[in-house]
Design goal:
Largest sheet: 3 strands, antiparallel
Keywords: Methyltransferase, Transferase
Oligomer: single chain
Protein name: Post-SET domain-containing protein
Number of domains: 2
GO molecular function: methyltransferase activity
Order of helices and strands: EEEEEEEEEEEEHHHHHH
CATH architecture of the largest domain: Beta Complex
Domain Post-SET: 122-138
Organism: Cercophora samala
Shape: globular
Strand order of the largest sheet: 3-9-8
Number of strands: 12
Structural class: alpha+beta
CATH topology of the largest domain: Beta-clip-like
Number of helices: 6
Length: 258
């Protein structure tokens, strides 16, 4: 399999991402963060352009709906899979967020492929090295509830797994990610109340929440709405290893039709 030939201007995200290419012929790549972010801070938007709707899944797509996929058309293509990811690809709200541990400059950029991909045509054995490594990666469809416990999953994955509307064992106990997201929401609300009270000189009850905060609440509840993404302004309210996984699987992580 040949290396992906970029058709976009490189680097596409010079302020936040550094892509490292192997010097041999193994077609290995990985990406490093150039910035520090708090838990769930905004890393990037999945804007149109450069993203474009994909009529069918390909090597360079991510799944964003039950039957919807998009082309990244950027260096975000070179973000590898990990079972202990540093990023969350929220393809419903079209944003990429730092994970629950935050993000440090120099850290490898990774995300959990089954969080966006229901079925992958070319599974691969994960080599992330995490203590939580799931082993064989072939999409959320082929993973058990125990394997998905505590993992961020997009709305379409939850829907395809039959998780919407009923509580499964995956949801019986609020996991670390959910607790961290909830803490971010509460902290953002308090900060907004305090800021507006200080600005107006009086204590006020804030009725209007940031869209970004509401988006996080929807993430907790699995209630996603397209176009409800976190803007840069809203994000401010939330701020206070080998072979690339895509090349191992022969695809971006989407359910490519062979």
């Amino acid at each position: 399999m040949s290396h992906v030939t970029p058709h976009w201007t490189q680097p596409s995200h010079p302020a936040i991402q550094q892509v490292l290419y192997a010097t041999d012929t193994s077609f290995t790549t990985k990406s490093l963060s150039l910035i520090n972010l708090p838990p769930f801070g905004l890393f990037a938007k999945l804007d149109f352009p450069p993203c474009t709707p994909a009529p069918s899944p390909t090597y360079a797509t991510v799944q964003c709906g039950v039957d919807a996929h998009l082309n990244l058309n950027s260096d975000l293509l070179y973000i590898n899979h990990s079972c202990d990811p540093s990023l969350l690809f929220d393809t419903t709200n079209l944003v990429v967020l730092a994970g629950p541990k935050g993000l440090k400059a120099g850290e490898e950029l990774t995300f959990f492929y089954p969080s966006t991909e229901y079925s992958m045509a070319q599974p691969f054995d994960c080599f992330c090295g995490s203590a939580e490594c799931k082993g064989r990666i072939s999409g959320a469809r082929d993973m058990g509830e125990e394997q998905l416990r505590g993992m961020f999953l997009n709305a379409h994955i939850r829907e395809l797994l039959g998780m919407n509307g009923t509580r499964t064992r995956v949801e019986e106990e609020e996991d670390e990610t959910a607790r961290a997201l909830r803490n971010v929401v509460e902290a953002a609300n308090k900060a907004l109340d305090s800021y507006l009270a200080s600005k107006n000189g009086v204590a006020v009850k804030v009725e209007k929440k940031l869209n970004g905060v509401n988006g996080v609440k929807r993430a907790l509840n699995g209630e996603y709405k397209n176009g409800g993404g976190i803007t840069e302004v809203e994000a401010e309210g939330l701020r206070a290893r080998g072979t690339t996984s895509r090349e191992l699987s022969g695809e971006m992580g989407g359910d490519t039709v062979a």
